[in-house]
Amino acid sequence: MRPVSVWQWSLWGLLLCLLCSSCLGSPSPSTAPEKRAGSQGLRFRLAGFPRKPFEGRVEIQRAGEWGTICDDDFTLQAAHVLCRELGFTEATGWTHSAKYGPGTGRIWLDNLSCSGTERSVTECASRGWGNSDCTHDEDAGVICKDERLPGFSDSNVIEVEHHLQVEEVRIRPAVGRGRRPLPVTEGLVEVRLPDGWSQVCDKGWSAHNSHVVCGMLGFPSEKRVNVAFYRKLRKRAAKASARRSKPLGRPIIKLKAKPKPRVGRGPIKRLLAQRQQHSFGLHGVACVGTEAHLSLCSLEFYRANDTTRCPGGGPAVVSCVPSPLYAASSGQKKQQSKPQGEARVRLKGGAHPGEGRVEVLKAGTWGTVCDRKWDLQAASVVCRELGFGSAREALSGARMGQGMGAIHLSEVRCSGQEPSLWKCPHRNITAEDCSHSQDAGVRCNLPYTGVETKIRLSGGRSRHEGRVEVQTGGPGSLRWGLICGDDWGTLEAMVACRQLGLGYANHGLQETWYWDSGNITEVVMSGVHCTGTELSLDQCAHHGTHVACKRTGSHFTAGVICSETASDLLLHSALVQETAYIEDRPLHMLYCAAEENCLASSARSANWPYGHRRLLRFSSQIHNLGRADFRPKAGRHSWVWHECHGHYHSMDIFTHYDILTPNGTKVAEGHKASFCLEDTECQEDVSKRYECANFGEQGITVGCWDLYRHDIDCQWIDITDVKPGNYILQVVINPNFEVAESDFTNNAMKCNCKYDGHRIWVHNCHIGDAFSEEANRRFERYPGQTSNQII
Fold first, then answer.
1. Helix, strand, coil shares of the chain as percentages rounded to 5?
2. Which of 144, 519, 542, 778 could covalently link to 54 via disulfide, CB atoms 3.0 to 4.6 Å apart?
3. Residue 273 counted as domain residue
4. 591 and 525 both lie in a single domain
5. Strand pairing of 479-483 and 523-525?
6. Comparing C-alpha atoms, which of 655, 656, 662 is closest to residue 728?
7. pLDDT > 60? residue 486
8. DSSP 311-337
9. Are 298 and 284 a contacting pair, CB within 8 Å?
10. Which of 179, 190, 177 is nearest to 265 (CA)?
11. Predicted confidence band at 238 (pLDDT cuts at 50, 70, 90)?
């Protein structure tokens, strides 16, 4: 062999270094991201469990020491910056109160304030490195979009050592034939590990474990399993397995025996198949019963080289108890039956079932809960009390919109075993302790019902809009069809969007000629009428199998445009009570009002311009507490100009004003067109967006309110013909549901009033759902009996 000279080796080495970027010590300049000087010396990682690779507790290494970030003042903008530090394009959410478990070591940052455009977390404002008054129970986390930055170098990102963890839980039924109604409430417990689904060994399995599993699956409680039945199934499966494994050659003599109670072959086959798969992946589960997730329990995982798994045991079985809302009967979901006694907790403002702002009932009045020390244990108590499972997320910072009125509770500390939130230790709140920007909320685990598989949208520009198609028929005869557009409105569209899992309805459309229906042209449902609270269109009233449409053809079928956010209007009831008074107004000053039908019908026969009308006048201040701006349904091109008053009407009827007798009979009425929807005033951190001047855009921004003063036209009820007596004053905003809102139950306001023919007493004004049921009954039973204001 001819020796290779030194210079030849040098040439080969140089060529290899040019071809291999590793010799250069860094990626090619064309793909390397620009270095961020602000982050030099810092390292980042996601930690905690249960979590996915793109979410977790944020930990920062500084000066060789790892630490966390406090959730005080933490926002989505800060999460954006941190996700980019971690190599992701952006954040989709953030968490508080150590959702992924408390960290250890230093708390490096507190009161972190970012605009979202910073290139490094060091450019954000904070209290300074290591300066914090928090505990690790307040560690912040981020949920990043599962999309990496192009060319990102993760040399400054350290992934925490990956531990086995339970990612998901499900129940697989072992008994029953044919199609089982959903939700599945009893069966074998299976957990999803990184390498797939596995069963859990039942040795040492306890009721506490079942409680945690059922909570994760959306059930409030569990019941005892018939262990003897499943043990018998396992024995039969073992015998069947032994017979199959016997060598052929010798005939098997079958002896006729006395008939015994038989167990169906289906369950045996299932258990036999599951036994042959040797799919046990988890054992030694030990839960306290208060955990919100199985990963928070003490667990033992089988190793890959374990040849004997669950000796003498079998797969763990649970039996869960659904709430009446999700009880299955003949494949149909029942609506929630009325509980014994009125509930003392409720959810408001959520886009999906089982989520919302937490409100509690105290002294007959509903109020919110302050988010101080709000955690998964307290949230789980709320969820189970309402008939859901454990909490998936405990929300702070009014993530489900701000409430109005009282804040009843603060610093709620639950163990997770309490039957009601009121049984948890808490602190009664004072006015200066908390604001509605700190209202607590929850997202609960729900049972899987499969209702979203029976509805779909077609022809829309995105998955959030289109013509509604529903699945009808039974096994073997399932077919898709359209819904008749007659009488289809906002409430029906709200139910459709909820069933689709797409949140609220922006619009319910009766004509869908601009959306192509493809090959689906048959109308299979008509006469749909919903209250707006149903979980699926099947629960709404409709014509059944008899389809009757006034307008035929696929162009006159129902459609929806869905949205994850919606407005929520609320009337300031105290202002109505404070500003109400009577005015006798001359007829010659009411011509414009008469033109807009703001007077009683008897005014038409009055001796114009002589005489007067008696008017009950008051101011109305309408707040938008939702998560989307309130906008008129019609665009500016279709607004109606009223020459007399010199303004446009963007909604024909924006509010109804009524005087009712105690039995609900209307004795006087008025209405208000939305001649000027605008932002009169806003909260400190909110800017006005809508103004009527110069034909501007109309609407009410989130966090703003529109004020109709008592001294403008039509801001009254004509009570000229009303006789003296006790009455109820009622004001209803958005009465025809023209514009979608997250909550219509708070659109009505009621007051007691007593009229003696000369003066009127107005008192006890409140939002329709602000009182308990008993308080509302008392209110309607004795209208006008208490007098605290003389007008």
1. 20, 30, 50
2. 144
3. no
4. no
5. parallel
6. 662
7. yes
8. TT--B-EEEEE--GGG-EETTEEPPPP
9. yes
10. 177
11. low
Which of residues 144, 160, 177 is at a domain's end? 144
Average pLDDT on 498-518 reads 88
Q: Are 467 and 557 in contact (CB under 8 A)?
A: yes
pTM over 0.85: no
State the pLDDT at residue 325: 82
Residue 398 has pLDDT above 70, yes or no: yes
Residues 695 and 677 in one domain: yes
SS3 40: coil
Structural domain boundaries enclosing 361 = 345-445
Are 638 and 491 in a shared domain?
no
Instruction: Please report whether residue 276 resides in a domain.
Output: no
Q: Is the peptide bond between 183 and the residue preceding it cis, with omega within 30 degrees of 0?
A: yes
Specify if 87 maps to a domain. Answer: yes
Number of domains in the chain: 4
Q: Tell me phi and psi for residue 72, to 5 degrees.
A: -65, 125
Nearest Cα residue to 444 out of 560, 364, 521, 352 = 352
3-state secondary structure of 284: strand
Alpha helices in 374-431 (DSSP H): 376-385
Nearest to 327 by CA among 176, 185, 495: 185
The two structure tokens encoding residue 5: 């000279």
Q: Which of 107, 127, 144 is the last residue of a domain?
A: 144
User: Is residue 173 within 8 Å of 180, Cβ to Cβ?
Assistant: yes
Q: Which amino acid is at 673?
A: A
Domain at 349, CATH number: 3.10.250.10
196-205, 258-267, 595-604, 767-776 — which is least confidently predicted?
258-267
- Domain check: are 536 and 584 in the same one? no
Phi, psi for 173 (deg, rounded to 5): -65, 140
Instruction: Tell me the CA distances in angstroms from 40 to 37, 64, 93, 267, 711, one per residue in order.
Output: 5, 13, 26, 61, 63
Q: Which amino acid type is present at position 155?
A: S
Euclidean distance between CA atoms 30 and 47, whole angstroms = 32
511 in Cβ contact with 556 (< 8 Å): yes
Alpha carbon distance 197, 279 (integer Å):
8
Helices (H), 307-435: 376-385
Q: Coil, strand or helix: which one is 24? A: helix
Kindly state whether residues 585 and 714 are assigned to the same domain. Answer: yes
Closest of 561, 545, 448, 540 to residue 495, by C-alpha: 540
Which among 284, 549, 322 is positioned nearest to 445, based on CA atoms?
Answer: 322
Check whether residue 654 and residue 768 sit in a common domain: yes
Cβ distance 218 to 353 under 8 Å? no
Region 733-759 average pLDDT: 90
CB atoms within 10 A of CB 359: 25
At residue 415, φ and ψ (nearest 5 deg) are: -85, -20
Residues 6+ apart with CB under 8 A from 51: 100, 165
Residues 365 and 465 in one domain: no
Strands 760-767 and 748-755, bridge-based pairing:
antiparallel
Q: In terms of domains, do 475 and 547 share one? A: yes
The three state secondary structure string of 640-688 is EEECCCCEEECCCCCEEEEEECCCCCEEEEEEECCCCCCCCEECCCCCC
CA–CA separation, 786 and 511 (whole Å):
51
